Amino acid sequence: MEVRFESPLKETINWIVYAEFNNVLEIDRHRNIGDDYSNYRETKTWSIRSPFPEERRNKSERIQDRWLMENYHGIGWNDGETDHQDVKYILRLYTKRSVVFTKGCEKCLLLSEISSPRVVYDLADLGCPSLKKLKCDDEFDYCWCWCFPKHRVSHYQCSKKNCIMLARWFMTSGKAKLGSSSFSFKSFENFPYTSKIDVYKMVELGFFYSGYGDTVVCHACG
């Protein structure tokens, strides 16, 4: 999903959707991309148009846009197919009651706002390393995400490759840490009805708060 915001985000946003342990969503810093796919192969992809045409950008902003296209991601400001106003609907449709993770406090706040009402958890709490430290196999040295010719060049940043790396880490390392008592207790800090449940008992039984409504999740079976 190629998503545009009025100004670039300060950080790259990686959104892990914990539904059936295989859905991943990412939004990139300057391109602001999100991808939702299962098992790394079956991809649902959208290219979201910018909220307004490039002509409304001032000169310095257009210079920045051009630099980013030529040096960072290979995607033009006016590229895209799906209306920007559909972003929230798409995110809510595909996350539903899933448990959502991202990396970084600012990212959690932003994604919580986009997918409101829900709590987004920080993937760093599970010990996820930086993307630079995660392995990217040779088969992902190029990007096949979009029909934008320049973006397919291997040296450009690609959120889909980032998602694949994060998903693999989550499947092999991060998922197991969801059962830790520290994470479970922290998750219930956001539960809206703590007076109606025994939090200690829920954690002892292996549950954590999903971050959505009053739904809790069993770590063992999902």
TrEMBL record:
- InterPro entries hit by this protein: BIR_rpt
Query: What lineage, starting at the top, does this entry show?
Result: Eukaryota, Metazoa, Ecdysozoa, Arthropoda, Hexapoda
Any one Pfam family match given in the protein's UniProt record, by short name: BIR
Question: Where on the tree of life does the source sit, at the highest rank?
Answer: Eukaryota
What name appears for this protein in its UniProt entry? Uncharacterized protein
Output the SUPFAM superfamilies linked to this UniProt entry: Inhibitor of apoptosis (IAP) repeat
Matches recorded under PROSITE patterns:
BIR_REPEAT_2 (PS50143)
